[in-house]
């Protein structure tokens, strides 16, 4: 497994597959995640919501409409009914692809086990925290991630959730900040997360705030911009176009390797 402390001195930014290989595959689905890993991604980011029966699933929005075409809240539908909905983003990607349900977090854990060098940022979504409360959400997510804890970094906009993760043991955490201002800096210094995450468009200083964290900036799809942001202090660059950027020689870094079991299944 990668020594994350050595990442801070890398001459090349580390690329994170934002919702998997989402520029070419339905976001937050197993095909998108597997394609990102096959492309060489060593880091992947996914979003987690809870269904009505409190099953953690890979899903970004609070509403199902954008990705499935079904107008309902993710927290109002049970996991079995969710499996009957096609999350293949037909409006964005067209109708050619196969039926693709939203996967459970347990299914993603099974995939991650096949790629023991890979690291995953697990975003705990606020809609589920509001609906179910922090205790239930954290219990369901962290219990599911326990077999691959060393590969996972829970992240969230919600500071209370991140403090709750820390209370559960030796988890690394990442705070997603909405703003890049003095108030946010004070919150970051108080929390001292392992990772500090922000939309690159909100950065207003030439050099990113120094601290005990590593910076991850999103959403970047151009190699030149990724390099510029790395020079300003971003160790990690989050992109939906992971395969395209990994092919750029200026962004090359060693690709993650699958386990022998994963090779046997390919």
Number of domains: 1
Class by helix and strand content?
A: alpha/beta
CATH topological fold name: TIM Barrel
Low-confidence stretches: 1-9
Q: State the end-to-end CA separation.
A: 22 Å
Biggest sheet: strand arrangement: 1-2-4-5-6-7-8-9
Shape: globular
Number of helices: 13
Portion in beta strands: 15-25%
C-alpha Rg (nearest Å):
18 Å
**Mean pLDDT, nearest integer?**
93
Q: Can you summarize the main beta sheet?
A: 8 strands, parallel, barrel
Fraction of residues in helices? 25-40%
How does CATH name the architecture?
A: Alpha-Beta Barrel
CATH class: Alpha Beta
Would you mind describing this structure in some detail?
- With 266 residues, this protein is α/β, with parallel strands linked by helices.
- It is globular and about 50 Å long.
- The chain is 35% helix and 17% strand.
- The protein has an 8-stranded parallel beta barrel, surrounded by 5 helices.
- Helix 11 (223-231) links the parallel strand 8 and strand 9.
- The protein starts with a helix and ends with a helix.
- The chain has one domain (4-265): TIM Barrel.
Question: Would you spell out the secondary-structure blueprint of this structure?
Answer:
Blueprint: H1 4-7, E1 14-18, H2 30-38, E2 43-50, E3 56-58, H3 65-68, H4 79-82, H5 90-93, H6 105-113, E4 119-124, H7 126-132, H8 134-145, E5 152-156, H9 159-167, E6 174-176, H10 182-191, E7 195-199, E8 214-218, H11 223-231, E9 236-239, H12 242-246, H13 260-265
Parallel strand pairs: 1-2, 1-9, 2-4, 4-5, 5-6, 6-7, 7-8, 8-9
Antiparallel strand pairs: 2-3
Helix pairs in contact: 7-8, 8-9
